[in-house]
Write a structure and sequence with these properties.
The chain is an alpha/beta fold. The protein is built from 24 helices and 14 strands.
């Protein structure tokens, strides 16, 4: 007779019932409970008036306007609770490209669409409708310790084209000028280029100075100017800060005006412009409701509170520059979209299905087939799955290569392969454009090299200390800290680089700016350290203990044992750790985009601003229209990056095979 089960008699026998209990819990959790919750929510929801605006609006584009448009959308959603408005930035070019690609309903821009962009939109069946929703002035800011208070448009032209390089040329201190700009996807960048760099001359070929730093946001410009006495930048009035000083601007001497609302309204400030919203054809449905709200007193109040100038009767809204109108379907005019809570019934079968699948899965996991069935059926199936998984990886990589190659070849039908591989200028929005990859390639190589020089000795040394020298308690603490370091997001490290590391390096090495290659290398090395330390420590700890005992028995010291016995034995694992760290460095995007300055020049020193391959793709892909020359050029850059990473992995594999032999 079997002894009755009691927890006191056998505390571990309850584990026999764990799979069955877990199956029941998950079946209820995935299926029954969510279904009941949705049932209650559906019953409690109030009926939605079919005449009430409902749906989703995506507004995308100008970083200058993003805060104001976000405030407008919040007030709009209070007024119309069944319409959700998502607002994102990225630059005016990003908004225009999204409108052309039909991935947004409203494109917010701080510049007009170019004729080239309008033609491309019309070819894709998109008819841009231009609407002025506010006015803005571009403020030129300097450090508060800079004695310069007034500059003419001609002075700004000389500064941002590199013809003037020292503040003493304008009566200031003997200090090098550091020019700051937004990235090329910014509408503010395009407007400033046309009005200041090219002096509003359509046939001008002038470009920003190659030493100009391209920063990712207006706030980044504020941070750099506030901490750098020689810096000068520009931004929308809504981003002006007490930490910097806005200079008065004049078209000629003795006619200077500050960037104020009054001067923009009176059109006396020379760098003023409209702010636009573009839609696909005449606004209809919920898009029209949103645009009308933005132009209403409540909507205009949000623009005023963020530092912009409202649309007035003296500044009427502009009409569409295109006479051709694309007919809108009934769905586009009055989209029948679900209001929140109106479609919850459709989720009930999904949750019930998840519950049944989870229950079936746990029943299968508890099934114990006979050994002959497991050997003849189970093992071949597992082996086939493993082979198919490996084959799938190879196919995916090959398909990625073909995809990159196909779009890259589209560029070389119109642009010379030689100019791409050996060109020394990357100017994608100039006329004609230049897509020379040399400065980007050298920037990536320089940043990666110094990051490896920093992180490999430090990482391997830290792994040796943790595995062989540190006491047991300290070893546990250090391993936990390494795992925590690996979880820090790269955008957080980039932010710390802008706020703290860049100023420290600037003051330490007496640089004109701390946004340089060394800042990026240090942060990349920091990001690669957890990978190198963790895998190297596991490789060192995996060396058999008998090796150590034999070495000590022959009279070797701890250092001799570690250097001559342990490291050679763990060399294959350490090499794998180093190569994984290099892969992390080469593929990193956000950090180098934020802290290296993004100057597309051939770097001659790690202390100079530079731009990498990954930063170029991330910074410019959002603004490109599918099928454009710039779009294909970025795929060609991606192909170069793919070739580099493939070569690194191939060489690493050769080294690993040699080390194992």
């Amino acid at each position: 007779m079997t002894e009755p089960f009691t927890p006191a008699a056998s505390p571990f026998r309850i584990l026999r019932f764990a799979p069955r209990c877990l199956s029941r819990i998950l079946s209820f959790g995935f299926g029954v409970l969510p279904a009941l919750v949705l049932f209650v929510l559906a019953g409690c929801g109030r009926p939605v008036d079919p005449n009430e605006p409902q749906g989703f609006i995506q507004a995308k584009g100008s970083d200058t306007m993003v805060n104001a448009v976000q405030m407008v959308s919040e007030e709009f959603m209070k007024e119309y609770p069944h319409v959700f408005v998502a607002v994102t930035g990225g630059g005016s070019g990003v908004g225009i490209a999204s409108l052309i690609n039909r991935t947004c309903e409203v494109a917010t821009t701080s510049r007009e669409m170019k004729p080239k962009e309008i033609d491309m939109a019309l070819k894709r069946g998109v008819n841009p409708k231009e609407i002025v929703i506010a006015y803005d002035g571009i403020a030129v800011i300097v450090n508060r310790n800079n004695p310069i208070d007034e500059l003419t448009i001609e002075d700004l032209h000389r500064i941002f084209t590199g013809k003037a390089v020292n503040w003493n040329q304008f009566g200031g201190k003997n200090l090098a000028i550091v020019t700051l700009s937004r990235e090329v996807s910014s509408g503010t960048h395009m407007y400033f280029k046309e009005e200041v760099v090219q002096l509003h001359q359509k046939d001008s070929q002038e470009e920003f100075s190659k030493a100009t730093l391209l920063l990712t946001s207006s706030q980044a410009i504020v941070e750099e100017v506030a901490g750098n006495e020689g810096a000068i930048g520009y931004l929308g009035m809504g981003y002006m800060s007490d930490r910097t000083k806005a200079v008065r601007i004049g078209k000629r001497k003795e006619d200077f005006h500050p960037p104020t609302v009054e001067d923009v309204v009176n059109k006396t400030y020379p760098l003023s412009r409209p702010l636009y919203a573009y839609t696909n054809g005449e606004p209809r449905g919920i898009v029209k409701v949103f645009i009308d709200f933005a132009l209403s007193p409540i909507g205009q109040k949000q623009f005023v509170e963020t530092g912009f100038v409202p649309v007035t009767e003296e500044n009427p809204k502009s009409e569409s520059r295109n006479s051709k109108q694309i007919p809108m379907t009934e769905t586009e005019e009055n989209p029948k979209r679900l209001a929140p809570g109106s479609g919850v019934w459709s989720f009930l079968p999904v949750f019930f299905g998840l519950g049944l699948v989870s229950d079936f899965g746990f029943r299968i996991s508890n099934f114990r087939p006979r050994r002959w069935l497991q050997r003849r059926v189970g093992e071949p199936i597992v082996e086939l799955c493993i082979r198919l998984s490996g084959l799938a990886v190879v196919i995916f990589v090959f398909m990625i290569f073909l995809f990159l190659l196909r779009d890259s070849l589209s560029l070389f039908r119109e642009y010379s392969l030689r100019d791409f591989l050996f060109g020394r200028e990357w100017l994608p929005i100039s006329e004609p454009p230049h897509f020379g990859v040399v400065p980007l390639l050298l920037g990536s190589i320089l940043v990666t090299f110094w990051a490896i020089v920093i992180c490999v000795p430090l990482g391997v040394g830290s792994a040796m200390f943790i595995a062989e020298v540190a006491p047991k308690r300290l070893r546990t603490v250090l391993k936990s800290l390494v795992e925590i370091l690996a979880s820090i997001p790269s955008v957080v490290l980039g932010f710390l680089g802008i706020i703290w590391l860049a100023p420290v390096l600037r003051d330490t090495f007496h640089l004109s700016t701390g946004m340089c290659g060394l800042t990026g290398s240090l942060l990349l090395a920091f990001m690669a350290l957890p990978t190198i330390i963790s895998i190297s420590e596991d490789a060192i700890a995996g060396v058999p203990r008998t090796y150590r005992e034999a070495a000590f028995g022959l009279g070797a010291t701890r250092w001799q044992t570690l250097w001559r016995i342990i490291l050679p034995s763990a060399s294959s694992g350490i090499l794998a750790a180093v190569m994984l760290g290099i892969g992390r460095v080469v593929g990193e995007t956000m950090v180098v985009l934020m802290v290296t300055g993004n100057a597309p020049v051939i770097p001659r020193s790690i202390l100079q601003p530079l731009r990498t391959l990954t930063a170029t793709i991330a910074g410019e892909m959002g603004e490109t229209v599918g099928g454009s020359e710039h779009y294909f050029a970025l795929f060609a850059v991606g192909l170069v990056l793919f070739a580099i990473t493939f070569s690194v992995n191939f060489v690493a594999d050769l080294f690993l095979r040699r080390a194992r032999k």
